[in-house]
Amino acid sequence: xxxxxxxxxxxxxxxxxxxxxxxxxxxxxxxxxxxxxxxxxxxxxxxxxxxxxxxxxxxxxxxxxxxxxxxxxxxxxxxxxxxxxxxxxxxxxxxxxxxxxxxxxxxxxxxxxxxxxxxxxxxxxxxxxxxxxxxxxxxxxxxxxxxxxxxxxxxxxxxxxxxxxxxxxxxxxxxxxxxxxxxxxxxxxxxxxxxxxxxxxxxxxxxxxxxxxxxxxxxxxxxxxxxxxxxxxxxxxxxxxxxxxxxxxxxxxxxxxxxxxxxxxxxxxxxxxxxxxxxxxxxxxxxxxxxxxxxxxxxxxxxxxxxxxxxxxxxxxxxxxxxxxxxxxxxxxxxxxxxxxxxxxxxxxxxxxxxxxxxxxxxxxxxxxxxxxxxxxxxxxxxxxxxxxxxxxxxxxxxxxxxxxxxxxxxxxxxxxxxxxxxxxxxxxxxxxxxxxxxxxxxxxxxxxxxxxxxxxxxxxxxxxxxxxxxxxxxxxxxxxxxxxxxxxxxxxxxxxxxxxxxxxxxxxxxxxxxxxxxxxxxxxxxxxxxxxxxxxxxxxxxxxxxxxxx
Length: 551
Hints:
Layout: H1 15-27, H2 30-36, E1 38-43, H3 47-56, E2 60-64, H4 69-82, E3 88-91, H5 109-115, H6 118-134, E4 139-140, H7 165-181, E5 185-191, E6 206-207, H8 212-228, E7 233-236, E8 239-240, H9 242-249, H10 265-275, E9 281-284, H11 290-293, H12 298-307, E10 313-314, H13 319-332, H14 337-353, H15 368-379, E11 384-388, E12 402-411, H16 423-429, E13 433-436, E14 450-457, H17 470-474, H18 477-480, E15 490-494, E16 509-512, H19 518-528
Parallel strand pairs: 1-2, 1-10, 2-3, 3-4, 4-5, 5-7, 6-8, 7-9, 12-13, 12-14, 14-15, 15-16
Antiparallel strand pairs: 11-16
């Protein structure tokens, strides 16, 4: 059993921690080792589901939609009581609607990039880490290192820090360092780099089309800097990098050039570990995603996740069945115990690096009122006034009293129906008369002083495209073609996807607010009525390269 690498970066285990790893590993049965490979998705509070997952004794869980911090810790304590090894407890700490239910509504990465103040990113990240540790979380699948180069991408959009690699590096590495300083291991993602393919790996294996020179100058540089800064883990995604595979196998690599990284030994071992020098833990992206499932059946690719260099299998709908897939692969030689042992040791190494083998004290958490005040203040700095060619703003209830609102609501992928915006109500409280559009309403300057379009599509999962759906918005093909801004002052606000000017380039006034949370909506309501200064910085090109969209 070789463990010397655990004393090196990024784990840097001391003799006591190394001794714990060796002793714990030595006491694990083969069955326990296989169970340790799994991180299960644990959502909600259903006692039967939680009990079944606890009985499986996984190496980790990802918690979603918990009630409050105290209940979360109770659930996590139950998991730890069932197993001999402390759990890695993970979450996607991405802010916005991925904020913890027991914490504040924090800006998402694109909003932080729009603010572009490292002190803000560090403070937000520290407070997010404090909230997460209080809820028992010790691992985050963030920050995102993806580059939003293909602006049509629905999956990068608001989850990433924009399209400039230098901005991404500044904010992502600041967040990573702050998380790890406060007991939250970071998993930078999505290896080997997303953002040049405008599709979603939840639906299809996406392709990083860059040459290796181009890759090294962008994603390679980002991942090297994260590794140099001590990142503890990397998420290997269902993304192919044909240029590297062809470099290794030749131009006749065929379909192998498009193998997703999550099951590619070339991308995980040769590129990430050997060429970039990463010695930390590699976690697969969610194994239920079509970016992996489209490649082969689960009984084939699940063992390949570990055989190809990942140390953690992320999510399983049927863990006991998945165990059988691993057993079968071990029996026929597709998977070796050497790979399993190496993965388990790296998991134990990260657990020891986080102090989970001891009794590490929780960091002191910023009091709720102070955190809320900071979240409110930061939200006011994020919304970007992209253009206002008619000098519409600020809005005045005396001049723009009668407001017609067009909106399809807030789309959140984990809910079946859109959520309503609170912004119309907030404007009503400020003295505006609000009418929500319904098909058949007469739209004329005689009836309305302002038209307000509200869009609530943040980065979405399992949705191939985000666009301004005029037909869905108006309910009639004739109404979909009408543009009223020549007669009625008009304002568009996107609380998410920042590229909607592509579908309405001549809209006279447009704002990117990045996040659909109520905190952000309240900030926008104040800014609309002149309470504060608009941000003018865009972390992406909101004009999508269109010359006319600027006017």
